[in-house]
């Protein structure tokens, strides 16, 4: 189906200009245009599209000189322009054509050979991506024979020839994904429409012109960091500056590179034409592309050294690590700290309005073993599974790894108390220092059930390997389920202990108990088909089981099993931290803290993901075989992929539009963070030459 033809809507316009301008949407400018188009007699129902060609405007164009010189394909209106010319005597394009024709005289004919032309591209051909346009009856040519000796190339006159040249066969074009034509035209205030008299008009070329024009207008209005970017080869750039666009002579070209930024200076010695071209916008003295790459690497938790290796492999120009650290210190890290503090203040304000809040706490070490440098303590709202606070503790602040967890919890609780958050309880592990600290603070504490079950299961598996204890292995699954059922179905501590101890009677086929808090098993009474599965009192298997289940510390901790929320969300959050701060990479204190903030922002935004489904709506599950299960499988839900990264967009907007403009106010938040001295600061630094000499003598 052929595309729509657009005409000038002015009544009586017989010779429309090829540059059409869409009716503005703002008042009162829209009403003035309508009154002009319909001669003060507008119909009750207006057409969907109303255009006015350039012939009806006088001194209303911002690029009229460039258009007449041939450097622009359409005329652009100034803001607030109103059509005033009803019957133009000579259209502007015809006048410019006749003026140019009077200054030159061509001797070309239709039998001349095709002029030599050259296409330049970034990686594709320029003709594939360039907007196509042809003027009716007058076609431009680059190479010609001029016999007018009075002409000066510096005058900037474009040569025209009235002789038609037969077009070569079209080569295949790369099909680009385009928007709907009507939507594109509505978003564009000025277009170039083909004339009906042109027999060589190609509808596909016009669609590309309109789409590219609207797209470039949208790109020009975008913020710098949201503009699309491409990889461009150096020889493709330099080919654009080899020939002078005025006199077509060779030019001298110089280039200057700053990281990913390149600036090209072109000078024509013949007509003295010169221009400077930059590959990126420059903010202050910083190329925007360099800062954007630093921000993208940092905010996504990537490694600069891996990116540097990739760029070196493909010979892609990149700045040095010192530049990346300078960008991080001055702009990126202050933005991350500000973003997290702003989000945390809003979250704590919402929590302070609740009557009771249930939180959980857990610590993560930055490296396995006892050589830990950092410990990050996380406090999470277990009712929404969102991270509320993160405290980073360095080992030399508290005297070792064992004291890190208590220090992190103490800082977090002090923050919650200062913001007016009232705690109902807290769910943690069974760290002795944590137990004592919370008991002294009179804060109700519950233990995570999985951690107790894991410890008991490990002891029972070791017992099953002993002689005369193999029968106990058949009860491992039932004992695990009994532990979780005890925590979920009990209200008070004595009730939990009674249900916990009832397993010792149940494995002996005794289902009534002496404890009044749980006098009998709740399952229906039935006779077992396999009588050999029951344990017998006095045997080695039952003795070992009774010793584990009635341990004094276990019975004391059973009273604090969490009946509602567990700390399993912390495992998911810790896996997210590994993406931003791997354990095999060493970070400074502020760098580690900012990466923890990024992990928390990412986790909080994607914590509510739904379960993935098939095309028919069936929920998806994944079967795993954990190493610790030794062949036993587990089933997990498959979550949908993270679809939104709003925190990344917000951080980039903050960096480019606020922090870069005035970094001082954002740096104040960073300076408030107490940064401890490095681990090696407490030692005296020896002379480097002496150490080298001693090392050589030892060898």
TrEMBL record:
Residues 1-86 form the THAP-type domain. InterPro entries: THAP_Znf. It comes from the Eukaryota. Residues 95-105 have a biased composition (Polar residues). The keyword Lyase does not apply. Residues 83-114, 168-203 are annotated as: Disordered. PROSITE patterns: ZF_THAP. This is THAP-type domain-containing protein. It comes from Cyprinus carpio carpio.
